[in-house]
Amino acid sequence: MRMLIAEDDSRLLTQLDTFLQQHGFSVDLADNGENALYQLQEYTYDLAIVDIGLPVMDGFDVIRKARQDNIKTPILILTARDRWQEKVEGLDAGADDYLTQPFHNEELLARVKALIRRASGQANPTIRFGPISLDTVAEEITVNEQRLDLTAYEYKVMEYLMLNPQKVVSKTELTEHIYDQDFDLDSNVIEVFVGRLRKKIDPEGTLRPIETLRGRGYRLNRDL
Hints:
Blueprint: E1 2-6, H1 10-22, E2 26-30, H2 33-42, E3 47-51, H3 59-68, E4 75-79, H4 84-93, E5 97-100, H5 105-119, E6 126-129, E7 132-135, E8 140-143, E9 146-147, H6 152-163, H7 171-178, H8 189-201, E10 210-213, E11 217-220
Parallel strand pairs: 1-2, 1-3, 3-4, 4-5
Antiparallel strand pairs: 6-7, 7-8, 8-9, 10-11
């Protein structure tokens, strides 16, 4: 999952970046509101974390302008302010949730995952597609209750497909959402991951869980 963090406190920005990358997120950073809005306008994110007190353009204006541009990225507000009026203002501007500093990293992670699931129409932390189950909390995938031994990037690919079950996902889109921006988008590494996933999920070749649509990308098999 690809995420934007907009925060002007360099120490907190580094802490969030490190923590979320450790949990499998591809993270872009912005240290002022103008840069944050530009990145939201130019790139597609699975979630944005926005501090209210950003320089140049505050977080409220970033969110309002993003929503005016019809940017639907889920937005989590970070705020050191505990006045309820400011929380209401943030939600009214178009944010989806807020978290007051100081906070525990585990709560941040839980809110992030919940917002991403909700944006994909999934309320349950366990997503099921035929015999395949993806536990977004434990970050595990099972097939017919049997846990698969996946690498981190294999899991990321399958998670993205399962969060977008009706969508044809291009190789470029997958790459952008599981790797940092500077990754080589022409690499065939996604094809390798998909091939490995097919073998691990469907060793007998009976489920055919991931379809390839030539020239377009991949999609979960709707007949599962």
